[in-house]
Every structure is written in C-alpha cells, then in structure tokens.
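If your schedule permits, I should be very grateful for your opinion on a structural question. Kindly check, if you would, that the fold set down in the tokens agrees with what the sequence suggests. Thank you for your consideration; the sequence and its tokens are set out here:
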Amino acid sequence: MRENEQVDFGNPVDRAHASRIGRAWIEIRRGAWTQNLRIHLFGDDDPLEPGQMDALDVLVRRDRTMKELADRLRIDPSSATRAVQRLVADGLADRYPSPDDGRIVMVKISESGRARHGVVDERRAEAMALILGRFTPDERSELADLLDRFVQAVDDSGDRLARSPMMSRSQPS
C-alpha cells in the first residue's frame, strides 16, 4: 500500500484534479447511470433493483449467513434483513436455519434468482464490453489498477474518518 501523498488544495492543479474526480464520481453514481442502462441491465417489466443484484452477486458464489451477507455488501444487518426479505418475496432467494446452529439464518440464491442473475450478468458483460471498448488494452489495465486503488483508498479513508474525534462528535447521541 502506498503512503498518503500530500494533496494541497491551495495548489490549483491538485484542486482541479480533485474536482474532476469528484464530478466523475457523481456522474457515475447518478448521471451516467441512465435509465436506458438500468433498463438494459435489470429489465423493464419486472426490474431488479441494483441492491438486489448486489446481493445476488454475493449469493451466487455460496450461501451466506445474514451477518456475512451484510458484511460483504457493506451494509448494516437491518438493511441486509430488508434486502433478503425482498429477495425471498420475489422468489430470488431462500432462507434456512444453519445446519451448525439453528439460531443462525442462512440465505441462498434460488433457482429463479440464479437464472435472473445469469441474464443480468450477460447484459452487464455486454455493457462493459461497449464501455471498455473505448479504451486501449493498456488503458483498461491502468484503469483497473487505478480503480482498485481508488476503492481501497475510499475504504481506508472511510475507516479512518469514522475513528476521527471530529466524526464521533458529529454523530447524534
């Protein structure tokens, strides 16, 4: 892991880079995530929500406890419970007691969920091919490396900020 390099917001170049990255983040999160792409990926008649697909992405690999699912999705356990309730209601997942400890609830993807995941996964690959086709192979490699580092930096910074004294003062009591 690289050490933090100083970012000087008094420096117009650092400030411009931070601004461009911030705008890109917003566009990816909101603007670039257009209705057309959402419909292409998740369908129009019985659309999946992005959060449902996130859960299916985790469950398609293996069954999980509710805690494991919440941790993997980076959400609190109550949000995971609500997400699983929606998946179960839609027939995309099933709950069952852990064979090791009946008090623990396990979640698994249903056959219907596996089929829906497969369709969305194919559509996602098609969309990603179109998007990444605008970059050379070297640019794709560099972009992948930089995004991996960016995600790790966001995670590390979020953890650090959560432990900061200022953050604990701003939390409601």
Q: What stands out?
A: Residues 10-45 form one domain.
